[in-house]
Amino acid sequence: MAESPISRGFRARPRLEAHRHRIPPGQHLVTDFPVLSAGPTPAVDLARWRFSLRDGEQMLGEWSWDAFNALPQTEIKTDIHCVTTWSKFDTVWRGVTVDDLLRAVGRDGPPAPYVMMHSIGGYTTNLPSADIVDGKAMVATQFDNKPLDPEHGWPARLVVPHLYFWKSAKWISGLRFMPTNEPGFWEELGYHEYGDPWKEQRYVGD
Amino acid sequence: MSVISPTNPARTTWRVAEVVEVRDETPRVRTLKLHVPDWPGHKPGQHVDVRLTDEEGLQAQRSYSIATPPEEKMISLAVERLEDGEVSPYLAREVRVGDRFELRGPIGGYFVWTVECGGPLVLIGGGSGVVPLVSMLRHRAIQKATMPAKLIYSARRYEELIFRDEIDRLAASDPNLEVAYTLTREQPAGWQGGTKRLDKESLKELVPAPNVNPQIFVCGPTGLVEATARLLVEIGHDRGRIRTERFGPTSA
Predict the structure, then answer these.
(1) Do A10 and B232 touch (CB under 8 A)?
(2) Which domains are assigned to chain A?
(3) Using the beta-carbon criterion (under 8 Å), do B13 and A4 form an inter-chain contact?
(4) CB A165 within 8 A of CB A174
(5) What is the mean pLDDT of chain B?
(6) What is the mean pLDDT of residues B194-207?
(7) Cβ of B99 and A28 within 8 Å?
(8) Which residue, of A171, B214, B225, B233, has the fewest CB within 10 Å?
(9) How many Cβ contacts (< 8 angstroms) between chains A and B?
(10) What ipTM, to 2 d.p.?
């Protein structure tokens, strides 16, 4: 649409110059860590927890909790951006990069161009495979040097910080690579299929 | 998880909404009735994004639930004022009739209920989390639907119950609607309702049993939603029939 009307009497909080290139359009900075989920937080039994990597129906690899934690660990510090307009700076995550997961099953790249993230409880979200390799994503088991809080995805969640955070599936249980793009849970419900915060791709058609 | 088909698969465009009425519901909550040109319609439970622009061109964007049912031509938002907020103090105090701001929606297709979804319907709200639930109740009343429905509404104090008179009227005129309030911090003299936070015992008593398969919607602050959803699962409710919407303190 053309020009945004001025909201009489409204004063936005001043944006620090230093933040201009860190806060995407339409976002604001928070210091707490809001929770957004569509249903109850699942109760997870670590003894029965499994993480799987699939190419379509074919199983590429599966890990128990102990085996998963024996994989190479990486720590990242990154800003995150939620589609509900909050952004948070310098979040610290520790876990296994998708590159290392692929390496662990003898692959040097994704076997198919798209990937669906699957979570305990049925949540799904889709992405181009290129967005989760080359250091762009990890399956994190720690936030701020502690195990994840249950409502933030314990025991493991995906972290894809360059996209809106609904792509960073909580309670993740596996990745399924697929030859064509398919919509995940929120993507079926009107949210953008890709979700680049810098292009403000919140909803279909953005 | 079952999924309701998208209400609005087309592009969600920004529209300029005009305030046609403001109404204080509680000391901190104000309803804004809005005229939105070409509003595409919504389902009860959905929300909108609001975008404000100041004189220097700086913008701020937040989400608010729609309080009105789809049957009404104009939409209303009920905004709770958070003192350190950037947007809510403006919307819940500054705004006057005739003011305009941008809005787009409807957004969200999961925390949604229409009479076609059937019942029994259980709505559990904490604080301003009752807003999307009231949209569902208003829709149900206009449609004269008769499936059993129950609203369980937790607030800190009596005067903080949003839409209290209307909820009471709806309940009084509808034998299939039950309302249970709980006031967790302070109760007026002679208070007959609940006096503590929702716990396993009260949820067992108030929510229809798992074997009648209620559809449950829980909306409110994260703490209430987390605890309530967890207890409902423990009681035996199917997690796929519990839909949640959480308000963090940052929805300011």
Answers:
(1) no
(2) 28-199 (3.90.420.10)
(3) no
(4) no
(5) 93
(6) 97
(7) no
(8) B233
(9) 152
(10) 0.91
Of the ranges A8-12, A73-77, A84-88, the best mean pLDDT one: A73-77
The dihedral through the CA atoms of A8, B62, B126, B183 has a sign that is: negative
pLDDT at A22 exceeding the cut of 80: yes
Partner-chain contact A26 B59, CB within 8 Å: yes
Residues in chain A within 8 Å Cβ distance of B88 = none
Q: What is the pLDDT of residues A142-186, one digit of tens each?
A: 999 999 999 999 999 999 999 999 999 999 999 999 999 999 999
Q: Give a three-class secondary structure readout of chain B.
A: CCCCCCCCCCCCCCEEEEEEEEEECCCCEEEEEEECCCCCCCCCCCEEEEEEECCCCCEEEEEEEECCCCCCCCEEEEEECCCCCCCHHHHHHHCCCCCEEEEEEEECCCCCCCHHHCCCEEEEEEHHHHHHHHHHHHHHHHCCCCCCEEEEEEECCHHHCCCHHHHHHHHHCCCCEEEEEEECCCCCCCCCCECCCCCHHHHHHHCCCHHHCCEEEEEEEHHHHHHHHHHHHHHCCCHHHEEEEEECHHHC
> A149 at the B interface (CB within 8 A)?
no
- Cβ atoms < 10 Å from Cβ of B86: 17
Give A98's Cβ-side CA count (13 Å radius). Answer: 27
Q: For B121-167, how does the pLDDT look when each residue is reduced to its tens digit (9 = 90+)? A: 999 999 999 999 999 999 999 999 999 999 999 999 999 999 999 99
Which pair of structure tokens corresponds to residue B160? 């903080």
Q: What confidence score (pLDDT) does residue B11 get?
A: 80
Report the pLDDT value the prediction gives residue B9, as an integer from 0 to 100. 55
Which whole-number Å values give the CA distances from A197 to A28, A87, B121, in the listed order?
12, 10, 36
Q: Which residues of A touch B52 (CB under 8 A)?
A: 7, 10, 12
Q: Which residue reads 């909580």 in tokens? A: A170
In A81-140, the residues whose Cβ lies within 8 Å of chain B are 84-86, 121-123
Judged against a pLDDT cut of 50, whether residue B220 lies above it is answered with yes
pLDDT of residue A135: 97
Q: Which of A5, A86, A206 has its CB closest to that of B16?
A: A5
pTM: 0.93
Residue of A nearest to B217 (CA): A39
Q: Which of A5, A43, A123 sits opposite B101 (nearest CB)?
A: A5
Contact B99 A8 (CB under 8 A): yes
Q: List the single best residue of A203, A204, A206 to mutate versus B (max B Cβ within 10 A).
A: A203
Tell whether A204 is within 8 A of chain B (Cβ).
Answer: yes
Reported as a single tens digit per residue, the pLDDT across A125-136 is 999 999 999 999
Q: Which phi and psi angles does B68 have, rounded to 5°?
A: -85, 155
